[in-house]
TrEMBL record:
Name of the protein: Cobalt-zinc-cadmium resistance protein
Domain Cation efflux protein transmembrane: 9-205
Family statement: Belongs to the cation diffusion facilitator (CDF) transporter (TC 2.A.4) family.
A Pfam family annotated for this UniProt entry: Cation_efflux
Length: 296
């Protein structure tokens, strides 16, 4: 399935859950369900942001972006993660206020019905995102839907516990269940945006890719270096979005087996073949020099 179609599915799915959650939350007087609806509404806006960025990424603009637009992907993911973090913080503040005020009465029959519906629906959309996660934007959407699935599952368990407590002498605890669930879920959800910000922040700053990718590249460079008796090969690499940037400055000498432009191109071809197993688009630059100062 195309990236744009997957993102459109995410937008419509989030919109449906947002409307249902907000209406159902008001009917059942549940802060937790209202939070779920608000989260889904934020999801609509963030999915639209992903669609707009995807459309912009597809536009050719070599004059202004000679090195591509891949940095837009991690930037969008960071913006989305910051917005989700703010929503979670606001929810934590609200839930603490509710607990201090004595909790909130909830229509449990309505709340249980919504929680069951939301858990199943969010998981279905998450699976669709997960099986089509060929883009960092879709991976971020999938993470968001997984968060929503866990949110709905926790809500379902929480409301069931509240219903059980309502049949016991501990019924006085029931009003605290709803804001307590918001507090716990929001606190946990803050860890997911943090992870996304950390990963995509590294890409935005053009830091090195993951350890396994670095090791594969280093191994390929070392093999070519030995094969052609190169004096030195200085490697620089970074990953932005789905593009892997590899820059290699090769120092040759009289004993090296690289003399002509054709042989230099052969080195480039061998490196490209050795890196073919890395599932990313590659931007490979190999420079040759006899003076080590040009590698610094």
């Amino acid at each position: 399935m195309k990236v744009s179609k997957v993102l459109h599915t995410s937008v419509w799915g989030a919109l449906a859950f947002a409307v249902i959650g907000l209406v159902w939350g008001m009917i059942s007087s549940s802060q937790m369900i209202l939070f779920d609806g608000a989260y889904s509404m934020i999801g609509v806006l963030l999915a639209l942001l992903s669609l707009l960025s995807l459309r912009y990424l597809k536009k050719e603009d070599q004059a202004h972006f000679p090195y591509g637009k891949e940095s837009i992907e991690p930037l969008v993911v960071i913006i989305k993660s910051v917005i989700i973090s703010v929503l979670c913080l606001l929810a934590i503040i609200s839930s603490v206020s509710e607990i201090a005020a004595g909790g909130r009465e909830v229509v449990l029959s309505h709340a249980l019905g919504y929680a069951a519906f939301s858990t199943a629906g969010c998981y279905a959309v998450f699976r669709l995102m997960k099986t089509n996660s060929q883009s960092e934007l879709i991976k971020a959407e999938a993470a968001q839907w997984l968060m929503d699935t866990w949110l709905s599952a926790v809500v379902l368990i929480g409301f069931f516990i509240a219903w059980v407590l309502g049949q016991t002498p501990l019924t006085f605890l029931v009003p605290y269940i709803d804001p307590f669930m918001v507090l716990i879920v929001s606190g946990y959800f803050l860890t997911v945006p943090y992870s996304l910000i950390k990963t995509n922040g590294r890409e935005l700053l053009r830091m090195t890719p993951s350890k396994d990718i670095r090791e594969k590249i280093a191994s390929a460079v070392q093999a070519v270096k030995s094969s052609y008796r190169m004096e030195e090969a200085v490697l620089r690499t970074s990953k932005i979005g789905k593009t892997l940037y590899v820059e290699i400055d090769v120092v040759v000498s009289e004993r090296s087996l690289v003399y002509t432009v054709e042989e230099m191109d052969k080195v480039r071809e061998e490196l490209e073949e050795k890196l073919a197993g890395i599932p990313l688009e590659k931007w490979i630059t190999v420079s040759f020099t006899k003076d080590v100062k040009w590698t610094v």
